[in-house]
Amino acid sequence: MRTVLVIDDNPAVGTALELLFGLREIRTLHAAGPDEGLALLAREHVDLVVQDMNFTADTTSGEEGVALFRAIRASQADLPIILLTAWTHLETAVELVKAGAADYLSKPWDDNKLLASVENLLELSEATREVGRLRDERRRRQRALAERYDLRGLVFASTATLRVVELACQVARADIPVLITGPNGAGKERIAEIVQANSAVKSGPFVTVNCGALPSELIEAELFGAEPGAYTGAASKAREGRFELADGGTLFLDEIGNLPLAGQAKLLRVLESGQFERLGSSRTRQVKVRVISATNADLPALIRDGRFREDLYYRLNVIELRLPPLAERGDDILPLAEHLLDGAAVLDEGARAALQAHNWPGNVRELKNALQRAALLCSGGVIGARDLGLAAQRATGVRSGADAEPDRAMIETALRNARGVISQAASELGLSRQALYRRMEKMGIGNAE
């Protein structure tokens, strides 16, 4: 049951709040002073504290409340605290709110306003605990994965990336083709490296071919090799193809959707039999190669257009690993940023917020470029939001109209219209409650008046 601890030297306040909160099925504990309140916190589960600022007769300085607030913060840093008093100087309350107090209300309080604040904070507390539980579970799974498998130094913190990495490790030892899909710059080659590093052929070569970076007339020679004079401009001596170089190991075919149809037919044969011929040769060669392919293209659409063989698609796509764009892996952004900076500079709070707010259409590649530029432009080794240069880019991005990111004024207006009820304000803004809480915390917005 949700529990609120009221710390106030006036018994009438405890009784009144117990009746008020009881209407919302909220359990209320009452302590007459700081020592009793701290003792209750030590032995009871409490979701929220409502504390007075003065406990000694004829005292109005608020120093006792400040000391109590700091004592609670020292023992339970994330516990929400509402300050409730008739005497404290406004400046003191403002300082405590800046230090992490959830709200400040004057006596006599408005029942509706207090209930709205309490309900919102209890809701946030519950969501925070759940987020914490999921984060701890994710970290446990990540540690277990790192202990068992070679993750090639991959930096990640999101559940979405964790799922991809777990599946990559799970299928690594199976001698089957793997297709990695996802947008450009998302890190598909890193996932391919993880598959290879944990496979039965991890000691063999890892050979990469970017099918989108070669002229179509050279792709077959690149993959399968060529005899002297096999094509115009061919070398005067025989050339080994990537399949021969990767024999006993792994061949990573990036941008597989750009492979021409003639090359697709030969690739299908190699996948099925391990056999191929060099260009200009009739000699059949045999190799044992694990093939991992990747693409940002819509292969089923290419199949419908007659530009990709359906039989090859199903041969390559025995296991598909879909790597989401960076915009869907928000928890990866800051760990990646710090890893990419590698001590060259540090991010201030504004820069961290700007990185989290950006859509990252260029994914990890764009993030890397933005950080390299910012590290050169910043002063004193501290990167600010302006150094990143992301604001103008975001303004011209795909979000507009109803999909625009709500600014501070929009959020404050929605909170006023909802009379402080977070769920109602979030609905008006088209956000989830958790998303609205994150934006409020980022912008320093307290509960509505």
Task: Write a short abstract of this structure.
It is built from 20 helices and 14 strands.
Instruction: Describe the global form.
Output: elongated
Low-confidence stretches: 392-403
What is the strand tally?
14
**SS field, number of helical segments:** 20
Helix content: 40-55%
CATH class category label of the largest domain: Alpha Beta
The neighbouring-strand order within the major sheet is: 2-1-3-4-5
* Class by SSE composition: alpha/beta
List the helices and strands and how they pair.
Blueprint: E1 3-7, H1 11-22, E2 27-31, H2 34-43, E3 48-51, H3 63-75, E4 81-85, H4 90-98, E5 103-106, H5 111-148, H6 159-171, E6 178-181, H7 188-197, E7 206-210, H8 216-224, H9 242-245, E8 250-254, H10 261-273, E9 275-277, E10 284-286, E11 290-295, H11 299-304, H12 310-316, E12 319-322, H13 330-341, E13 346-347, H14 349-357, H15 363-377, E14 382-383, H16 385-388, H17 391-395, H18 408-417, H19 422-429, H20 433-443
Parallel strand pairs: 1-2, 1-3, 3-4, 4-5, 6-11, 6-12, 7-8, 8-11, 13-14
Antiparallel strand pairs: 9-10
Helix pairs in contact: 5-6, 6-7, 10-12, 13-15, 18-19, 19-20
